[in-house]
Amino acid sequence: ARVLPNPIFNFQALHLISGYNQNGFGTYTVYFQQPVLIGGQRQMRGKAAKAAERAAQSDVSAQFHDLAAEGRHVFVALQARQQHHEVLESAIADLERVEAMVTSRHTAGAESRYDVARIGLAVRQWRAHTISADAEIRDVAGHLGVLVGRPQWRPHAEGQFEPMGITADARSLWPDVQRSQPSIRAAKDRETLAERDLKATRREVWPQPTFGLGVVGIDNFFSMSVVGGIVMPMPVFDWGQGPVAKAKADLHVARIEKDAHVTELQAELDRVTSVLRERKRALAGFEADVLSQTTELQRMAEDAYITGQVEILELIDAVEAHYELELQHVELMEHVMHAEVDVLHVVGRVEETR
To answer: Minimum mean pLDDT among 150-154, 316-320, 329-333: which range?
Structure first.
C-alpha cells in the first residue's frame, strides 16, 4: 500500500524517409515521467491495509474460537466415555462380588446351579459392554487427535468429570459477550475496514498528474533541447461514481451484518443459558430423587436374597438397575457440561477452565 507509482521511461526516434526536414534526418527524444499522488492516496491505502490486517487477524481468532469450542466438546465427550467405562468396571466388580457370594452359597448347598449360571451370565454381559465402551473411547480420542493435527495420537482426558458451575443468566453474561466474543470483534473490524476502503476510494478518484522531463536530440548540427511537461486527467465524465457507490454499499452491508450478528448472539445466549438451566435442573432432580436411593435399594435386595425373600433374578435386576442409573447420571452430567461449553463459546471464553 505504501509503494509509490513507477516512473515511466519513454524513448522516441524520428527518422526522415522522404522529403526535406530542416532538422536533419533524425530527431531523438528521451523522456522520463513520474506520476504523483496529490490526494493523500498513499496514506489512505496504508490505513486501509492496516484495517485489512486487523480484520484478517480477527477472523482467524474467531475461527480458532470455533475450533476450540469443538475441541472442548470432544474433550467432554471423551471424559464422559471414560467415566462410562469406569461405571461399567464398577458394575462388573459388584456383580462378581455377588457371583462369589452365590457360588459360595451353592457350594454350601444353599443355592441351585441355575443361580450360579444366571449371575455368571450377567457378569459376561456387562463385560461385553466394556468392549463397546473401549471402542467408543478410541473413536472419540482419535477424533480429538485429528482435530489438533495429531491423527496418530490417542489422548486420555484428565481432570474431574463434573460441571464447572457456569452461571446460566443471559443478562449478566451479555456484557462479557460484548467484550470477549471474537466474532463481534471480527464484525467490528470488518466494518472498520469497509469505512477505510470508502475513504481510500474517495481519495483514489482524485486526478493523478504525471510530470515529465527529458531531452530531444537533433542530428542537424547536433543540437540538444530540454523538454518538460505535465499530463493531468480531467474528471469530466467519470469522477469515480461507481467505485464510491460500491464502497458505500459494502460499508452498509458490513454494518447490517454486524448488527445482525450481535442480535443473533443475543438470541443464542438466551438459548444456551436456557438449555443449561434446564439441564442443571434435570441433573439436580435426578440426583436428589433417583440416584440417592439406588445404593440403599441394592443393599436391601442383597439382604432379601440372603434371607431367601427374593430370587437371584431380582437381585441381578437390583444391581443392574443401580448401575444403569449411574450410566444415566453420567449422560446427564455430560449434557450439562456440553451446555456449559456452549455458553462459554457464546460468551467468548471457551478456553476458560474455572
So the answer is: 316-320
pTM above threshold 0.90: no
State the Cα–Cα distance between residues 329 and 324, nearest whole angstrom.
9
Phi and psi at 181, nearest 5°, equal -70, 115
- Kindly list the distances between the CA atom of residue 167 and the CA atoms of 140, 232, 289, 339, in Å, as whole numbers in the listed order: 28, 66, 24, 11
CA distance 27 to 12: 8
- Of the candidates 319, 327, 291, 325, which has an alpha carbon nearest to the alpha carbon of residue 101? 319
Q: At what angle do helices 113-147 and 312-347 cross, to 10 degrees?
A: 10
**What does the radius of gyration of the chain's CA atoms come to, in whole angstroms?**
39
Write the pLDDT tens digit of every residue in 145-164. Answer: 999 899 888 899 998 899 99
Q: Is the pLDDT of residue 110 over 70?
A: no
CB 240 within 8 A of CB 202: yes
Compute the distance between CA of residue 58 and CA of residue 251 in angstroms, rounded to an integer: 18
Distance (Å, rounded) from C-alpha 248 to C-alpha 241? 11
> Edge-to-edge strands of the sheet including 210-218?
8-15, 26-35, 210-218, 223-231
Whether the Cβ atoms of residue 156 and residue 82 lie closer than 8 Å to each other:
yes
